[in-house]
Each structure stands twice: as structure tokens, then as C-alpha cells.
């Protein structure tokens, strides 16, 4: 049996769409009553480790979707609780959605690397690490034009090898349904063609006038962002602007695991803008 966590999040929901109707799949969520797919659902809350023994009963493969929206100590406690419970429940294989290796400069990299290390050091679990690149949908959000049609995101001439979240969901499903083939593997799942502020502006019919990090910090801090999210967003801008997230510029693990070229990031960004 495969259990997927975080199914009411953006990535988890896309994963579930692809697994709906399968007899050997269970959905895990803090809100199992809100799971829309035709699948049995179990309560899974890493902040309440007492929920996890029952949740992981009979599970052979756990698709552990990172629960990263918090300070490092909270995130590592969540992932640590999930992995410990998986070990105790006799889970055989954990597939973990991590962060791409080129993201080591990002403020949220630490919790992912901690989790990867915790999995490597497990005495009982087999594991696969899916090092997800930053979503095209995320770039659409942090580089959205203002009401005046101007993108001021401080990306300079930096580019991001952004990935369609749906592609990452598809890879997660492919791997989680055949975990033995991927045991002990760490995959780098980044886009093939990096995009920057100028290209985002062009596809949206906007203008790109990149601002400074200090102005972006003030504006993110003045928004409804939580305290820990301010350095997350600023660190993301900075890593893109300084050229750390441009990717290798060609096919890699993502295309290999999809069995086709990835969806172009600019199409995803244009689509996100048209619905948003
Ligand atoms: N690569 C990227 O660009 C990128 C961007 C944003 C986030 N991320 C990371 O990738 C993860 C998945 O992305 P996403 O798009 O699905 O993010 P999302 O839409 O914010 O969903 C995150 C989900 O994590 C689950 N979660 C949160 N706290 C939890 C807890 N205490 N116990 C169990 N599950 C918990 C929740 O699922 P339920 O509501 O079903 O409980 C939540 O909906 C994020 O959590 C974050 O770590 C990556």
C-alpha cells in the first residue's frame, strides 16, 4: 500500500489526481474529510506524532511530501516524526520531495538536507529523494506584475530553471509506484530552460523593471507574509538574481523520469496568470 501525505496541498492534490481509483493507495492529510479523490483518507499530522502510528499501519511505501512552511526547527521536527513513525510502522520505502541541489543557498534548504540525511541514516528504510526545483507557479507569484503592469521583482538578469508543479507530481507518482527501481537514488528535478524577469514580462505583456532587494524586503514585510516567510522570499530572489538557480540548461533527471520533455515554464506562468 502507498500512502501519500499532504494531499490537500498543491503538489499532493496533483499527485492524487493521478492515483485516483487505485485500490492500493491511501491519502494522508491534516484534513482527511476534505480529500476530494475517490480514495480512502487517513489523518496525517506531523505536528501530532500520535496520529502517525495508525496512519502508517499497513503502508509499504510512503510518499512524504515536505511540510516546509515553517521555521527550520518546526519542519525538521515534522519530518523527523514522520520518518521515525515510518520506521516503527514497518514502512519499507520513503519517497521524499526535497529541494534541488542548486538550492543550497536558499534559506529553506537546511530542513531538506536534514531530512535527506535522516533518511540516509535510517537503519531500516529504503529511500528515494526527489530534489524538486522551484515551481514555475512560484515564479509566477513572486514575479507577478503590479497593477501598473510592471514587474519589479529583484531578479536582475538572473534566471530560474523553473518546473511545472504537475511535472513534479507526475514524477513523484512514477517513482512511488515502482520504488524498488529508484532505491537509494537522488534525482535533480529542475527545468531545462531557465526563465528570467524579462521573459516572464514578455509572455504576460508586462514591463520588467527589476527593483532592489531592500525595496522587495520592505514590500514583502508589509504584506500578509509571516515573519519566517520574509527571508524565504528574499533569499529566493537573491539566489535567482545571483545566478545560482539557472539549471544545467538541458535534459536531465526530470525528462528521464517523465519519459518526455518537461512542460515549458513560460506556458505554466502564462496559464497561472490567466486564472489568477
Ligand atoms: N519547489 C517549490 O517551488 C516549492 C514551493 C513551495 C513549497 N515547496 C515545498 O514543497 C511542499 C509541497 O508543495 P505544495 O505546493 O504542495 O505546498 P502547499 O500547497 O503549501 O501544501 C503543503 C502541504 O503540506 C502539508 N502539511 C503542512 N503541515 C503539515 C503537517 N504538520 N503534517 C502533515 N502535512 C502537513 C499540508 O497538506 P494537508 O493540508 O493535506 O495536511 C499542506 O497542504 C511544501 O510543503 C514545501 O515544503 C516547494
From TrEMBL:
Matching PANTHER family: NMRA-LIKE DOMAIN-CONTAINING PROTEIN, QUINONE OXIDOREDUCTASE 2
Range of residues in the leader sequence: none
Domain NAD(P)-binding span(s) in chain numbering: 6-176
UniProt lineage: Bacteria, Bacillati, Actinomycetota, Actinomycetes, Kitasatosporales
Name assigned to this protein: NAD(P)-dependent oxidoreductase
InterPro entries according to UniProt: NAD(P)-bd_dom (IPR016040), NAD(P)-bd_dom_sf (IPR036291), NmrA-type_oxidoreductase (IPR052718)
Amino acid at each position: 500500500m502507498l500512502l501519500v501525505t499532504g494531499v490537500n496541498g498543491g503538489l499532493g492534490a496533483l499527485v492524487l489526481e493521478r492515483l485516483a481509483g487505485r485500490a492500493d493507495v491511501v491519502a494522508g492529510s491534516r484534513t482527511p474529510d476534505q480529500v476530494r479523490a475517490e480514495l480512502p483518507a487517513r489523518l496525517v499530522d506531523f505536528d501530532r506524532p500520535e496520529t502517525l502510528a495508525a496512519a502508517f499501519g499497513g503502508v509499504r511505501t510512503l510518499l512524504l511530501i515536505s511540510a516546509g512552511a515553517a521555521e527550520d526547527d518546526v519542519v525538521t521536527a515534522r519530518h523527523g516524526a514522520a520518518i521515525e513513525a515510518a520506521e516503527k510502522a514497518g514502512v519499507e520505502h520513503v519517497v521524499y520531495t526535497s529541494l534541488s541541489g542548486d538550492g543550497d543557498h536558499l534559506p529553506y534548504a537546511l530542513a531538506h538536507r536534514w531530512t535527506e540525511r535522516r533518511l540516509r541514516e535510517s537503519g531500516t528504510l529504503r529511500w528515494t529523494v526527489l530534489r524538486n526545483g522551484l515551481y514555475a507557479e512560484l515564479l509566477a507569484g513572486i514575479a507577478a506584475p503590479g497593477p501598473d503592469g510592471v514587474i519589479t521583482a529583484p531578479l536582475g538578469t538572473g534566471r530560474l530553471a523553473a518546473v511545472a508543479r504537475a511535472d513534479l507530481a507526475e514524477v513523484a507518482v512514477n517513482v512511488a509506484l515502482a520504488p524498488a527501481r529508484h532505491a537509494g537514488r537522488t534525482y535533480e528535478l529542475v527545468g531545462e530552460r531557465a526563465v528570467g524577469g524579462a521573459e516572464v514580462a514578455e509572455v504576460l505583456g508586462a514591463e520588467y523593471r527589476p527593483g532592489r532587494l531592500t525595496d522587495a524586503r520592505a514590500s514583502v514585510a508589509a504584506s500578509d507574509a509571516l515573519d519566517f516567510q520574509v527571508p524565504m522570499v528574499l533569499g529566493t530572489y537573491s539566489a535567482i538574481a545571483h545566478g545560482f538557480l539557472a539549471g544545467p540548461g538541458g535534459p536531465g533527471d526530470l525528462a528521464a523520469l517523465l519519459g518526455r520533455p518537461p512542460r515549458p515554464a513560460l506556458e505554466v506562468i502564462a496559464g497561472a496568470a490567466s486564472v489568477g
